[in-house]
Automatic annotation (TrEMBL), chain C:
GO terms for molecular function: sarcosine oxidase activity. One of its GO terms (biological process) is tetrahydrofolate metabolic process. This is Sarcosine oxidase subunit delta family protein. Pfam families: SoxD. NCBIfam families: soxD. Signal peptide: none annotated.
Length: 417, 1007, 105
């Protein structure tokens, strides 16, 4: 693997950039692997990377029905933060945040992790109570999160409208300064490059059509559009399509797949310094390094695999953006797209074992999976390699839906983005 | 060629021709320079008429850029336009209509367009190939946030963002039609004509100011015996007269959603110098169309040759449009270079208008004979098998290098030509964006070398050149037939089978995809594929070299196709270059998804009138106006405005709440509880229904009595509570929380309709039927007694938890004796329309008794002193009845109720659950913060699991100290224990107590 | 925005009049106490979440207020049919075959 650096770019400039090698290999599938990961999104590629890097398991294939990073990884609003309410969640997302810090250097790929701060607006007395609860819980858990008055919020984000006379005035905000954004494609590509260099086969345009099991129940491999590929361990990281894949193994899951939309404006000069989220009036906004305002919209109410949502959802989001930032009313939407998010009843992910021996599951990230990418891959690799969950993901078992030990971020009115 | 007049700035405006109104001259400015134009001009046509081509700087390399197109796909001529003292960025000069006093500025340059320091990037460009930023800026780590990213961010972005709140307003309307026709070129006009002839309701929209599309730039063609432009005028007049036709110019169909739902954005006032303040700036039309005819036309492709981006280099069709439609010549010495026939027409029109055409360089070895003859007649030099291999000129093209294509594909120099403009055409790409948005799958057509619409997925059909139909007569026929078919499909109207005759506008043959061959050092020259994002042919090749095999990866890695034209100009060329680099057939490389909006669409247009108070409906209680007059402070609870507290004089919130609490407990307080949800549950099986729905037993409840009710979700957690009063055997008055009203009602309906349809029960939401005024305090009875008729208010006849119907101040009334304060209390339910009057009547009595009005904050304090929970404060969706100390509210003998089974799940019966307790800070003046965590240790180590958290914290005026409620692990077993609330300034020791902290015997309640 | 045909009102109305109700034909057990924790979790949480034809519940919340069922293709978002609560679940496989045959024609 060529080490990337400014010097390397300069050196290649002399040869008109004709000597750059491939960032990842595109091999034909082998008959069998030690581990097969279904889904070459950020989480799946990170899992493969850490399987090779941390556990020395390099005989790994990552299969994807399309192109790597083509699902939710390339469709989200790239927000990174860890200020979740429950201790279990905060630990999981903080584990990811710790890995984000230094990920560019770890991968030798600039994922542009930008700690510009994530600010969550409170519009009601109830919001204030909820956010303060988060802040106190986070402080105890060692997760940074602080309270700002409306005036302090405006100082941190000058375009913010803190007029007391708007329909839902800003009453304050919770700020996680170490939160921010990262370049979503680069995360997938960086993990793909790193994993590929260690021997992981990334096989694109290879859809899984069946999961083969031995008479004794354990998995033996997958049927794909490119033939049968054997493996004793299979990790499913298929996001919105998880239910479809797991049905092949006869499992029904606590998931519903919904369209989630996002949009960007035309690029403009720096106008917005941080990430602002308002759960109460449904708006999520930041500005990309390219200059586009990146805006997250809500989910449609119904199950859909169409990667397209309704106009009224976007409209509602832009209402809110224009109320909070009235100067953006004249900005224009450049692109609007949708992804398929897999939501669990408690809006927390499922990472762990399944009733089928050898079959592991990582799903249910809903609208907020991007931020967890490194942590999710890291603990899922541990789970697959050792056959038992990492302490960080142990609470996120499928079994919690039987016992009732839910990790209910939704009920706690936490924002799931 | 002669200038229009001696004084005019319009140096390249032709003396005749065009559709502009030459009788009037307008002044506008660009970068402060004042110039002249005519009504009908776009900013782009006016600039060209003024000899100005340099209009912007490119995104990455800051290269000088000129006007490339004459349409919404323009990648270079993005300008800021001033209005209301602020500027709107990134408007396409090709779409901005000139009005008197228009002020526009160029973008992405410093200090000026002519001299831009950012142009150093062009010199350093070898260091900035596609994706260079993924490989660099990683060291030292701290520099990303502090140095690299701020520099990158400042350099990126096109125009400057608006700074002021937008004073304009926007509108939104819904429309239904039989046939929506998108695009008013020849196919669209023909479709609208034939569809509307059947009587079908037709909407015809077009993004341009004037309808007619390519016909407005046509010369020499006739339709139905009329010159094309005259036929357009006649047809529009016909359509305008038809009541069943709506014409929407300046209206872009930007989104195609499922079930033939199409969103249109109409630009209403931007083109007006002095718009009527009552007009919206833009209007969104949400159209549900029975049938859609997409007549979106085709986009001309630029030729990808080295230095193809200098100002003065335009698409051939754009040069022709500026000439024929606006009377503006793109240059004085024009080179036309092409791979197809259509560009020749531009050369001929220019020559006919007196502009020097220095040559037509056609890359085909043998361009069609009739074209060569026509060129020869005009004395135009024709170079076959000839390509442009480079250009020069710093701020405007001044020279082109020509190359001869040899049979082996190599190129040899064929000399230079001096020119001040180059018109180019690689051929035409059918516009399949909207078809693709309709979820149709495009199909590669080898003959057309284009992706064309495949089968219709929705009730739509494409017509004309957007589906590869070529030549005026064929396009008209196709459009006419599409209109008839659409009308027939929509309304069943029989087709008449008419057709339109046309001459001229012959089909264009030829075309080329990808980068042109040349004899230059490929590693050193820049041939632009995507102008706006500065993506060159080399960048696409580099992406492929680095392993990007999917067009989606190539797009994301190089950013080709991600500019504001969404790749309309660049996609096919990029795809062909990628296909060549991959050695794979073009259709195998795939096509990126077409996303909405078709053209960038203003946020305000989406938001429409949803702003200010119209952002979300405001629900007001009957006392609202009275409270406003008295200076009460409101809080938002859902959509409701609820009174938070009533400051008197100089009181702050703390003082006001303390007084309200004190007065209420001493004498009486009055509170507007109208926001509580109310549901009338009626029917033979009403008690059975409630028995199954709520945790409590109901069958034994006597008419005239009420009971506190707890509602669980099926998972066993508390989601709502309220009071249920039994008015008769078959009639209950149910109350819910304010926020839960709609949810509980929907949940009741769900169970009644789908699980227990056998139950004879009817439910009705009565939340807005009643004003509910709570009167609480020792003097409560005295306050209401004067108004009550027909109800004996004595303790014996009407004890705590009673309900009765009667009259109140002469009005029908339901009176509850209930208390959420721990005091003697009543809730007066009267018809909402009389609520304001009753509120004032009661208030007069309250004042007489020395009482006061109170708001939600006081209500919260008083109930906390009594240990009453609030849903959403003590509960958070994870709290069971036992956790909340409400085990007594469960009907244990009941066969079943919603959530019962879940209460025996392992985690819900596990040891160590968090339970509601009271907390008394050891220092009675120390106020706790709601949400603060609770630990055993005073200085817990990071990561210590919390024992619980403070759910409510107040100053208790009655107890003369601070109090709190909390949920704490094993809380009920900890009464008397001292725990800690660790805060940044140090831990606060707190004693765990029973949540009922005031009047635990309940004597006041029964007073 | 979907256009939904309410089987009670007999008219098509925009989606904003309706509330989604999740997967259809999951009947609440007559006696939940008879279910073990695993079975109860299946009832509470597990959903087929089908990619393709899906039987789902809607409520015409801002119309007649009735709950009804629909079969919709979750890939194209096209409704195959809507029907009243209490009517039997259509044979989704047969509907899928019919729709494929229709597309083939």
């Amino acid at each position: 693997m060529t080490r990337y650096s400014f010097l390397e770019v300069a050196k290649n400039a002399f040869s008109a950039h004709k000597n750059w090698g491939r960032q990842w290999r595109s091999p034909e599938p082998k008959p069998a692997y030690d581990v097969i990961i279904i889904g070459a999104g950020g989480h799946g590629l990170a899992t493969a990377y850490y399987l090779a890097k941390v556990h020395g398991i390099t005989n790994v294939a990552v299969l994807d029905k399309g192109w790597l990073g083509g699902g939710n990884t390339g469709r989200n609003t790239t927000i990174v933060r860890s200020n979740y309410l429950w201790e279990e969640s905060a630990r999981l997302y903080q584990h990811a945040l710790d890995l984000w810090d230094g990920l560019s250097q770890e991968l030798n790929y600039n994922v542009m992790y930008s700690q510009r701060g994530v600010m969550m607006l409170a519009h009601t007395v109830h919001d204030i109570q909820v956010f303060k609860r988060h802040i106190h819980a986070n402080r105890l858990a060692g997760v940074t999160n602080e309270w700002l008055s409306a005036e302090e919020a405006k100082e941190f984000c000058p375009p913010l409208n803190i007029d007391k006379n708007i329909r839902y005035p800003v009453m304050g905000a919770a700020l996680q300064r170490v939160g921010g954004t990262a370049r979503h494609d680069a995360v997938a590509w960086g993990y793909a490059r790193g994993a590929s260099a260690m021997g992981v086969d990334i096989i694109q345009n290879c859809a899984v059509t069946g999961i083969r099991r031995a008479p004794t129940g354990e998995v033996t491999g997958v049927e794909t559009t490119r033939g049968f590929i054997g493996a004793k361990k299979i990790g499913c990281v298929a996001a919105g399509n998880t239910s479809v894949v797991m049905a092949m193994a006869g499992l029904k899951l606590p998931l519903e797949s919904n369209p989630l939309q996002a949009l960007v404006s035309e690029p403009v000069k720096p106008a917005f310094p941080c990430v602002v989220m308002s759960n109460t009036i449904h708006a999520y906004i930041s500005q990309s390094d390219k200059g586009e305002l990146v805006i997250g919209a809500g989910t449609d109410q119904f199950v859909s695999y169409s990667q397209a949502g309704g106009l009224h959802i976007t409209t509602h989001t832009l209402d809110a953006i224009c109320e909070l930032f009235p100067m953006f009313r004249r900005m224009r939407m450049l692109r609007n797209w949708g992804g398929i998010v897999d939501n669990t009843p408690d809006r927390s992910p499922i990472i762990g074992l399944t009733p089928v021996p050898g079959l592991y599951l990582n799903c249910g990230w809903g609208t907020g999976g991007f931020k967890a990418t490194p942590g999710s891959g890291h603990v899922f690799a541990h789970t697959i390699a050792t056959g038992a969950p990492h302490p960080v993901n142990a609470p996120f078992s499928l079994d919690r839906f039987r016992t009732g030990r839910l990790i209910d971020e939704a009920a706690a009115a936490a924002v799931a983005h | 060629m002669s200038a229009h007049s001696q004084n005019s700035t319009q140096s390249t405006r032709l003396a005749h021709g065009g559709r502009i109104d030459r009788s009037r001259t307008l002044q506008f400015s660009f970068d402060g320079k004042v110039m002249q134009a005519h009504p009908g001009d776009t900013l782009a046509s006016a600039l060209i008429a003024n000899g100005v081509h340099l209009v912007g700087r490119s995104f990455k390399y800051h290269r000088p850029r000129g006007i490339l197109t004459a349409g919404s796909e323009e990648p270079n001529a993005l300008v800021g336009v001033y209005r209301h003292g602020d500027q709107t960025p990134n408007l396409r000069a090709t779409q901005v209509e000139v009005y008197e006093g228009l002020m526009a500025i160029s973008q992405n340059r410093y200090p000026s367009l002519d001299f831009d320091v950012g142009a150093i990037n062009d010199v350093l460009s070898p260091l900035f190939p596609a994706g260079f930023y993924y490989k660099t800026f990683m060291w030292p780590k701290a520099f990303w946030d502090k140095v690299y990213e701020p520099v990158i961010r400042a350099a990126a972005g096109l125009g400057k963002p608006p700074k002021l709140a937008d004073p304009d307003h926007y509108a939104n309307l819904y429309a239904h039609c039989d046939v929506l026709v998108i695009g008013s070129g020849p196919a669209g006009l023909a479709a609208a004509l034939s569809a509307s002839e059947t009587g079908a309701r037709v909407i015809l929209c077009d993004e341009q100011a004037e309808m007619g599309g390519s016909l407005l730039s046509e010369t020499g063609s006739t339709i139905e015996g009329l010159p094309a432009a005259d036929w357009v005028a006649a047809t529009l007049a016909t359509l305008a007269q038809r009541d069943n036709v709506t014409l929407l110019p300046r209206t872009t169909a930007f989104g195609y959603f499922v079930q033939n739902f199409i969103a249109l954005a109409e630009r209403v006032t931007d083109h007006l110098a002095q718009p009527d303040a009552n007009l919206p700036r833009e209007r969104m039309w949400q159209v549900r169309a029975r049938q859609v005819v997409i007549a979106a036309g085709a986009h001309e492709r630029p030729m990808v040759f080295p230095e193809n981006d200098r100002p003065g280099i335009l698409l051939a069709s754009a040069g022709r449009t500026y000439l024929n439609r606006y009377g503006a010549a793109a240059g004085r010495r024009v080179l036309v270079t092409t791979a197809c026939d259509s560009a020749w027409a531009a050369a001929f029109d220019l020559a006919d208008a007196g502009v020097e055409v220095v040559a037509i360089a056609d890359m085909r070895a043998t361009p069609p004979e009739p074209l060569r003859e026509a060129a020869a007649r005009r004395g135009i030099r024709v170079e076959a098998a000839c390509v442009v291999t480079g250009t020069s000129g710093r701020l405007r093209v001044s020279k082109a290098m020509l190359g001869r294509l040899r049979n082996d594909g190599s190129v040899v120099s064929a000399g230079d030509v001096t020119c001040d403009a180059i018109l180019m055409s690689s051929g035409w790409t059918p516009s399949v964006s909207l078809y693709s948005q309709s979820r149709g799958k495009v199909v590669w057509n080898a003959e057309h070398e284009a992706f064309l619409p495949g089968a219709s997925v929705q009730r739509e059909r494409s017509a004309g050149s957007c589906r590869g139909v070529n030549g005026l007569a064929a396009v008209l026929e196709d459009g006419y037939a599409a209109g008839e078919q659409a009308a027939e499909a929509a309304t069943g109207a029989a087709r008449k089978g008419g057709r339109l005759t046309a001459t001229g506008g012959e089909a264009s043959t030829g075309g080329y995809l990808g980068a042109l061959p040349h004899d230059r050092n490929a590693g050193r020259v820049k041939a632009f594929v995507d102008y706006q994002n500065d993506v060159t042919a080399k960048d696409v090749q580099l992406a492929v070299r680095e392993g990007m095999m999917s067009i989606e990866h190539i797009k994301r890695y190089t950013t080709t196709g991600m500019a504001t034209d969404q790749g309309r100009l660049s996609n096919m060329n990029a795809l062909a270059i990628a296909s060549g680099a991959l050695g794979a057939p073009l259709p195998q490389v795939g096509l990126t998804t077409f996303r909405l909006p078709y053209s960038p669409t203003t946020f305000g247009t989406f938001a429409g009138s949803s702003r200010g108070d119209a952002f979300d409906p405001v629900r007001r209680t009957p006392s609202h106006d009275w409270v406003v007059a008295k200076g009460g402070v409101f809080e938002d609870v859902g959509q409701w405005k609820r009174t938070w507290y009533f400051p008197q004089g100089s009181e702050d919130m703390h003082a006001a709440v303390a007084r309200e609490c004190r007065v209420t407990r001493q004498s009486v307080g009055q509170f507007d509880a109208s926001t509580l949800g109310k549901i009338e549950v009626v029917g033979k099986d009403a008690a059975e229904f409630l028995e199954r729905f709520y945790t409590n037993p109901w069958k034994g409840l006597k008419p005239g009595r009420c009971r506190y009710a707890v509602l669980l979700n099926e998972a066993g957690y508390i989601i709502d509570d309220g009071v249920v009063g039994r008015l008769a055997d078959d009639r209950f008055h149910v109350t819910t929380t304010t926020g839960g009203a709609a949810r509980v009602f929907a949940m009741m309906e769900d169970f009644l309709q789908t699980e227990w349809p056998d139950l004879d029960v009817w439910i009705t939401s009565t939340t807005e039927q009643y004003a509910v005024i709570a009167v609480q305090g020792p003097k409560a009875r005295e306050v209401i007694a004067p108004f009550v008729e027909g109800i004996d208010l004595s303790n014996a006849a009407f004890p705590h938890m009673s309900v009765a119907s009667g009259r109140f101040a002469g009005l029908p009334c339901r009176l509850f004796r209930v208390s959420f304060t721990g005091e003697l209390g009543f809730e007066v339910n009267v018809p909402a329309r009389h609520g304001a009057k009753v509120w004032e009547l009661i208030n007069a009595e309250v004042v007489k008794q020395g009482g006061c009005v109170y708001g939600t904050e006081t209500m919260h304090v008083l109930r906390a002193e009594k240990g009453y929970i609030i849903i959403g404060q003590e509960t958070d969706g994870t709290v069971t009845p036992d956790d909340a100390g409400l085990d007594w509210a469960i009907g244990k003998k009941k066969f079943d109720f919603v959530g019962k089974r879940s209460l025996s799940r392992p985690d819900l019966v596990a040891k160590g659950r968090k339970q509601v307790v009271g907390l008394l800070p050891v220092d009675p003046k120390q106020m706790l913060e709601e949400g603060a965590q609770i630990t055993a240790e005073a200085n817990p180590a990071k990561g210590t699991p919390a024992l619980g958290h403070v759910t409510s914290a107040y100053w208790s005026e009655a107890l003369g100290r601070t109090i709190a409620l909390a949920i704490v692990k094993d809380g009920r077993a900890r009464h008397g224990e001292v725990l800690n609330v660790p805060m940044p300034a140090g831990a606060v020791p707190v004693k765990v107590v029973d949540p009922v902290m005031y009047d635990p015997e309940g004597t006041r309640l029964n007073g | 925005m979907l256009l939904i045909s309410c089987p009670y009102c007999g008219v098509e109305r925009p989606e904003t009049e309706f509330r989604y109700g999740g997967e259809a034909h999951i009947a609440r057990p007559a006696d939940p106490s008879q279910l073990n924790d695993e079975e109860w979790a299946q009832f509470l949480y597990m959903r087929t979440n089908t990619r393709g034809l899906y039987a789902e519940r809607w409520r015409h919340a801002h119309g007649c207020g009735r709950f009804f069922n629909a079969v919709r293709d979750t890939v194209s978002d096209k409704f195959v049919c809507t029907y009243k609560a209490g009517e039997p679940k259509p044979d989704l496989d047969a509907l899928a075959r019919a729709s494929q045959e229709k597309d083939a024609r």
